[in-house]
Amino acid sequence: MTSPPSSGEATGLDRAAAVGAIENLLDVRRFADARARAAALLGEQPDDPRVLCLLAQTLLGLGEHASALQTAQRAIAVSPEEEWGHRLASLAYEKLGQYWFARDAAQRATILAPHRWQAWIQLADTAHALASEHQALHAATEALRLAPHKSAPHVVYGRLLMERDPIRARSAFEEALRVEPGDAAARNNLAVLDLRTNNLRQAGEGLIRAAAANPQDTVAQHNLRVTVHAIVSRTCLAVFVFTILVARSLTIVGEAMGRVQLPFAIIWIVTEALALGYLTWWLRQLTAPLRRHLWYLVSRDAILSVVVAGLAVVGILGTVGVVTSGPVGLTTRALALLVVIAVRILTAISVRRLRY
Question: What's the rounded Cα separation, in Å, for the pair 72 and 319?
Answer without folding.
Answer: 64
